[in-house]
Specification:
With 390 residues, the protein is an alpha/beta fold. The chain has 12 helices and 15 strands. Helix 3 packs parallel to helix 9. The protein binds pyridoxal-5'-phosphate.
Length: 390
């Protein structure tokens, strides 16, 4: 049958029809353990009753009015996010790329306010910030940019987790207004930087009057064992972007700002028809309440460390394992050989995983995964890795 969908994705040939918790079922009723959560989105698992109740109740009342009018649920959600993060205000969009667009616009406004005519943002190699023209220009992956020249000006790429590289870029250019960085690179291969990396970036931003912008689209909302990854460093950025797990599958993105950065997107400077509509905000509020009620930040840390420990034990005799790393439930297993085929082998075995950068297995299990499911994940994947690398 001819497909009328643009062929932008290399999809695996499986069709899921329902889910519950960490399980998914396909159209033949085969069951799969989801260790990817729709790429860090469904942290509460599938068909969580709190989300179901929130969105079905809200859909009976009001889905959408536009941002021409007050939206009390949006106010509530912004207040809650600011309480949790220490930020001052929030702009809502519908995706991670849109959240980052807002951040990039804030940085440019800041530059013009400080009389820099051609403001530039430092971004990182191997980063991923989205697929719109601005966010793909910020992204540090030539594959994402290929074919889309001319890219947007005003991004300077430096090596990740490399403070001297940041310092030399700052010394070389006098038009830098902001640094945009992922606390852990997700698409880049679960790259976890030095534990004081963000603290050093905070110091550099303070001493150079730059806006510190964190892309927490993947790391945010409890994934790493804290509400926001920057909380591990006891700092607060000037801008922080969110999406993915914020709606547990209902599309929503958010750009949070603090201090001087929170005063720049004024009336007429930005907007989104759907952004922060009652449906999306009801889902996000339910997500935040559930994470609190079920103590999922703590669980992400405990379960993530247990998974790391178990894989380290199971795979200790496998000489092809280069590295096993995690921050909470962001888990990477790096092999010394390409291993993208493992994705299909795992699918056959009823397990959903992902491979980034050709040789790093990425696991982003739902935070509600239980002990028996964790044991199954470890047994199945260790077995697959051991037979694949034999
Ligand atoms: C760190 C990061 N930023 C931005 C994005 C883009 O988000 P979206 O696909 O919702 O536009 C992603 C998506 O993977 C991401 O991981």
């Amino acid at each position: 049958m001819t497909s009328h969908i643009m062929p932008t994705y290399g999809r695996l040939d499986v069709t899921f029809t329902r889910g519950e918790g960490a399980w998914l079922w396909d159209k033949h009723d085969k069951r799969y353990l989801d260790a990817l959560s729709g790429i860090a989105v469904c942290s509460l698992g599938h068909a969580h009753p709190a989300i179901h109740t929130a969105i079905s109740t809200q859909s009976q009342q009001l889905l959408h009015t536009s941002n021409l009018y007050n939206i009390p649920l949006q106010e509530q959600l912004a207040t809650k996010l600011c309480q949790l993060s220490g930020m001052d205000n929030v702009f809502f969009g519908n995706s991670g790329a849109e959240a980052n667009e807002a951040a990039i616009k804030i940085a440019r406004l800041y530059g013009h306010q400080t009389n820099i005519a051609n403001p530039a943002i430092i971004v990182m190699q191997q980063s991923f910030h989205g697929r719109t023209m601005a966010t793909l220009s910020a992204t540090g992956n030539p594959k994402v940019q290929d074919g889309f020249a001319p890219l947007l000006d005003g991004f300077i790429h430096v090596a990740y987790n490399d403070i001297p590289a940041l310092k030399s870029a700052l010394a070389e250019h006098n038009n830098i207004v902001a640094i945009l960085v992922e606390p852990i690179q997700g698409e880049g291969g679960v790259n976890i930087p030095a534990s004081d990396y963000l603290n050093k970036i905070r110091d550099l931003c303070d001493s150079h009057d730059l806006i510190m912008m964190l892309d927490e689209v993947q790391t945010g909302i409890a994934r790493t064992g804290a509400w926001f990854a920057f909380q591990h460093n006891h700092i607060i950025p000037d801008v922080c972007t969110l999406a993915k797990a914020l709606g547990n599958g209902v599309p929503i993105g958010a750009c949070m700002a603090k201090g001087k950065a929170s005063k720049l997107l004024t009336a007429g400077k930005h907007g989104s028809t759907y952004g922060g509509n009652p449906l999306a905000c009801s889902a996000a509020l339910a997500v935040l309440e559930t994470i609190e009620a079920e103590q999922l930040c703590q669980q992400a840390e405990t379960k993530g460390n247990a998974i790391h420990q178990a894989f380290s034990t199971q795979l200790k005799n496998n000489t092809h394992i280069k590295n096993i790393r995690n921050k909470g439930m962001m888990i990477g297993i790096e092999l010394d050989m390409p291993c993208t085929e493992l994705v299909g082998l795992a699918l056959d075995a009823g397990l959903l995983i992902n491979v980034t950068g050709a040789s790093s297995i990425r696991l982003l299990p739902p935070l509600i995964i239980n002990d028996a499911q964790i044991a199954l994940l470890i047994e199945t994947l260790s077995g697959l890795i051991n037979s694949y690398t034999k």
